[in-house]
Every structure is written in C-alpha cells, then in structure tokens.
Amino acid sequence: MSALIAQKSAQPELMARYTRSSVAVPAAKISTRSTIQRVRTDRTNAVNPRPASSLNSFNNFNNQVLSKPIATTSYRYPDVQRQSPAVLPTFLSGSYDNVDSEYLPLLSRAETQSSTAAREVISTARAMALNERTIIQGGCWDYLNAVFNRAGVTRDTVHKGAYSQGPYANSSEIEVGDWLYYINHGYNGVEHSGLFVGWVDEADKQALILSYAGESRREPARYRVYDLSNVYQIMRPTV
C-alpha cells in the first residue's frame, strides 16, 4: 500500500518534467471577424451579368417578338347577322356536323332561289353531303364531277385564269352553283376547288363553299367559309 501511494505522488512530478522537455506549442489565434457573405438577390445579374445597354436591347427584342401576331392556318368564320327563319325546309331539318347551323338559311336560299341548273347542283350536293354523307374515291375535283353528273347538268367555263398569275375573277362574276377553282388561303395557299353557295361577306371575299377533302380521309363533304380573293376559274352549270 505504501508503495502505491508513493507511485501516485510521483506522477505530477513526471508530468512537469515532460512539459519542460517538450517543444513549446504556439497558442491558437482566434478571429472574431465574420466570414458570412450576403446572398445576392439580383439573379439575372448574378447568373449572367450584362451591361445595362445589352439588357435594354434584349428587352426591346423580346417586346418586338411578343407583339407580332402568330400566323395560323385555321378557318375563319366571320361574324354575320344571325338569321333564324320561322321554318326551314324539311330537307334541312336535323343536326349536322359538317355545316354550321348559322349558315343553313344561306344554303336554303341558294337551293330555292337559284336558276334551274344551279338548283339541281345545289340540291344534289346537299343531299350527298348532309343526308347521305357520300364518300367517293378521289379528291375535290372527283367529288364535284360526281355531283354535276348526278344532277344531270353540263358545265361551261365562264372565267379562265392560272393559279399563279390569274387573272382572278371579281366577286360580281360568281353565281350560286358555280364550280370554282381558287387559292386556298386557309391551307398553305394550295390549289383547291369547291361549289359556291353564297356570300357571307362579299366585301371581304368570304363565301360559303361546299368542299371535299377526299383522298384517305373518309369524311363527307362539308360547308365551310373560304377566302375567295383569288378565284382563277369558274365553271357554271347549264341544262
């Protein structure tokens, strides 16, 4: 026991000797200066710095691009005065997905007030499109050729021009039942032909046309509004 007590008493002395013989360790330097930096709130300049002049030019360019109208090729139905006759003819009674109901009165007038040959063409085309929903092989020319043959009428060319250079017909030259060739401004300016029903807005060259897409679409002909600014051929039905 005495030996254990003597050993513990010697430990402080040994530690003191070790401290004196060891290499001195410099005292740590503690800095109280903060190293935190404030986060920038200007994300535009922080991510992609630009001079003020460049930013103004960039903003002006964006405003010019956004202000330009977006081109579209969809059909346009002009605003027309709604006409609701008391009674439509029985052949127009019903609901159709290939003609807007607002244009049924125009179709009715075309069929009841036109010349004999035109009336045969308009009524035959209406029966094929709305009542029978006829599908034929071919395109717009083949469909209208079938309409004229079924109506039992011939056709005379009353205006002849070229697709690319005209001369283009005036609106006063076009009559109900005419087979028209025109530039289809609603679909990439391609050549197209259709049956003229009547003017929706003659001053703006907007007319109701029976059109057949044909080919592989397997859809009946439809009555749509087309821009007739560039009609280059007119064929008129005759008995």
Describe this structure in words.
The protein has 239 residues and is of the alpha+beta class. It has a 6-stranded antiparallel sheet with strand order 1-6-2-3-4-5. Mean pLDDT is 77; it is low at 14-26, 28-49 and 68-72. Helix 4 runs antiparallel to helix 5 and helix 5 (116-131) crosses helix 6 (140-151). It has helices spanning 2-21, 43-47, 52-67, 104-113, 116-131, 140-151, and strands spanning 154-160, 179-184, 190-201, 206-211, 222-227, 231-238. The protein contains 6 helices and 6 strands, in the order ααααααββββββ. The chain has a domain at 98-238: endopeptidase fold (from Nostoc punctiforme) (Alpha-Beta Complex), CATH 3.90.1720.
Q: Major beta sheet, specifics?
A: 6 strands, antiparallel
Q: Pairing-aware structural class of the strands and helices? A: alpha+beta
CATH secondary-structure class of the domain at 98-238:
Alpha Beta
Counting H and I runs of at least 4 residues, what is the number of helices? 6
What level of helicity do the residues show? 25-40%
